Amino acid sequence: MKLPLVELHLHIEGTLEPELIFELAERNGVAVPWATLAELRAQYEFTDLQSFLNLYYHNLDVLRQAADFTDLTRAYLARAADAGVRHAEIFFDPQAHTSRGIPLLTALGGVTDALGNSVADFGISTKLIVTFLRDRPADEALQILTEILASGYTIDGVGLDSAEVGYPPELFEEVFALAAANGLRRVAHAGEEGPPEYVWSALDRLGVERIDHGIRSLEDAALVERLVRERVPLTVCPFSNVRLRAIDTLADHPIVRMLDLGLLATVNSDDPAYFGGYIDDNLAALDAEFDLGPDRLALLARNGIEASFLEPAEKAALSLDVDAWRAAQP
Ligand code: ADE
Ligand code: ZN
């Protein structure tokens, strides 16, 4: 039996594997600047968040038709099922597509199609969180959200991502207020490269229920105290932090310290096609590095369940499966 996992920090665009880039380029007659997979893979060396985002946005050029988005999403779900994922709350960046001329509903429709069959085809329940690019104007985000709300497509929440430093959460107060007024859940990337003040702002000005990354919260004792007291989840992405040089090496990663502090930390893959692995790979590497053992692996799985936007009965059912997994371990 695999450890039942919940994934809460996963950009669907960040699951675009090199092989699929070449396949979609051929399907859509898009020229890519790399002759071989090896040449493309050689680009996957990052110095910071922006150096990654440059490649991430560039590679999206091959996604053109709704079916491309469906194939991308199904490929993630298939791999996630293999990892033991039972529930995924998936980020989708509409502006990464509308800004290059792809109609909003082509992209959203393609992703939604795959998610609609996810329980039947992959045994994974899903929620969809539309993430706004904080380095683009808030007015654009407001317009996209307004269009989605009028479209008839269902989304579950909104988030905030892309280049963080210089783009504080409060710029998006109006967008998040509209989301809240429409019953949507709210999350935001904060404290990935940005300072702890951005985490305070995401909580106080945007009303977010989870912080994505949040690792720089550890620099602020009063913030840690609040996050622990209010049980605000942090969706931590260890491979991402190392590959984007927020943390030097996996051995330096604070995930164990976070758990010891009583933070509601979860482990996630962020952009697995870019950072060296999926959620199971992240957990296996942490287990090897820190000797987590079955108790802390089960704790991380339970944290993911608690931090999710599932209903209480769904959480209880998944927790029983984690208990069964733990009971089967030595
Ligand atoms: N978009 C995709 N991955 C991201 C990350 N780790 N941080 C901010 N924006 C992102
Ligand atoms: Zn992210």
UniProtKB/TrEMBL annotation:
* GO BP terms in the entry: adenine catabolic process; hypoxanthine salvage; nucleotide metabolic process
Arranged from A to Z, the UniProt key words for this protein are: Hydrolase, Metal-binding, Nucleotide metabolism, Zinc
Q: Say which domain of life the source belongs to.
A: Bacteria
Tell me yes or no: is DNA damage among this UniProt entry's keywords.
Answer: no
Q: Which InterPro entries match?
A: A_deaminase_dom, ADE, Ado/ade_deaminase, Metal_Hydrolase
Q: Which residues form the Adenosine deaminase domain?
A: 4-324
Q: Which major enzyme category is it?
A: hydrolase
- EC number of the protein: 3.5.4.2
| Swiss-Prot/TrEMBL site (Important for catalytic activity) positions | H213
Q: Which reaction does it catalyse?
A: adenine + H2O + H(+) = hypoxanthine + NH4(+)
> In the UniProt entry, which residues are flagged as the active site?
E192
GO molecular function terms here? adenine deaminase activity; zinc ion binding
Give the record's cofactor note, including how many are bound.
Answer: Binds 1 zinc ion per subunit.
Positions annotated to bind substrate: D271
| Function according to Swiss-Prot or TrEMBL | Catalyzes the hydrolytic deamination of adenine to hypoxanthine. Plays an important role in the purine salvage pathway and in nitrogen catabolism.
PANTHER family the record matches: ADENINE DEAMINASE (PTHR43114)
| Protein name per Swiss-Prot or TrEMBL | Adenine deaminase
To which species is this protein native?
Answer: Cryobacterium zhongshanensis
